[in-house]
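[step 3/7] fold_predict: job queued, chain A
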Amino acid sequence: MSSRRMTTIAGSLVTAAFSTVMIFSVTASADEGPASSKGGKAVDEAPAGVELTTTLPETISVDNSSQKTDLTATVKNDGSKDSGKIRLLVVGFDGMTVKNVQGCSPMEEKDLPEGSNSGFVCPVDNLAAGKSKSYAVDATFDVKKTGKICLPVQTSDGKKTFWQQGPVPFGTTNPSPNAPATPLLLGTDNKPVAPGGDELPKTGVERDLLPLGAAGASLMAAGVAGLWWSQRRPRRTTC
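[step 4/7] structure written:
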């Protein structure tokens, strides 16, 4: 075999190996973006000199085969005085289910906020002025659904909520079901992938061809739901 041919083959092997490493590094990375307090708001007035907020990553990545994802939830005291004993809740909604939060305890089902599917309580105790505390969150995200997360910061007994981020969505408007992972953006409503791959839920003409009876039943159900909602007594809830 000539030296020229051996050089060509060796070069091809190096290129292939480099490409493999590049593909692996892209699919295996955490893809967790900069932290953001998007979707957050103050609720009950905090003690003088205490300024509590939370942050979530701007970007997370969901493994399309296992639906697993991870992120970092952070609570901060940007004030000039210590917070006193507080707690952070990490709550999942819809397609986002919180599986574990490091150093925190799962909420009992009866204590979960209305509409949520999972939640953890993190006792922060005292958070000194200018300090923050971060928690590693393990979750799953079903890309066929929308998904939200909520981070309330409360007194240790839960009677007051000083700050609440969310329920804020993670999602993408460009789903990629055939890729190894799907990147999701904070504050973006997810465009769910329909069962069967790339096809999204059908709308338009085909939807208009529903039998008259089915359409009537849908309208009646919507009317009943609207009446029930309008008659509900408003109540203050966390998340």
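[step 5/7] annotate
The chain is about 20% helix and 40% strand.
Residues 17 and 114 are 51 Å apart (CA to CA).
exit 0
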